[in-house]
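#lab-general

N.A. 3:47 PM
ok so I finally got the sequence cleaned up, no stray characters, all 157 residues accounted for. can someone with queue access submit it? mine expired

B.Y. 3:52 PM
send it over

N.A. 3:53 PM
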Amino acid sequence: MKTLDRYFVAAAFIVLLSACGGGGKSRIEQIKEQSKMEVADPYENWKQFHGVGPVEKFSLPADIDQQLVTNGREIFESKCTACHKVEKKFIGPAPKGILSRRNPAWVMNMILAPDKMVKEDPIAKKLLQEFNGSPMANQNLTEDEARAVLEYFRTLN
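B.Y. 4:20 PM
back already:
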């Protein structure tokens, strides 16, 4: 009789355990769903995202400053080409046409504070996933240097 009691207790325990987890989602599935909800589509409503960093708003002048373009190209070629190719996706996205996909403030913030952007900005989070979790290295550029790189990007359209 004691053996039968043990089987009954074991069976009841198994039933209780299976009832606790039965139809619910695992913690990993819940986290994945939550992160999907928090991450914006990087190809929709991009104009509203200014990013997270030192630049809150930024408007580009109508005319392109050729001196800034030259400086920006030099900076890009020396600090960025290990991960970015001008016209094609590589370790990071191609900068060609970036200003038709992102607003200038967002681009400046991504250049100036990429570590903060991938933690807090929904588009940067999505891009981090798209590019296999390879975060952009912080090159510690000044705002003037980032502005020069942005001006160079304007010529890549």
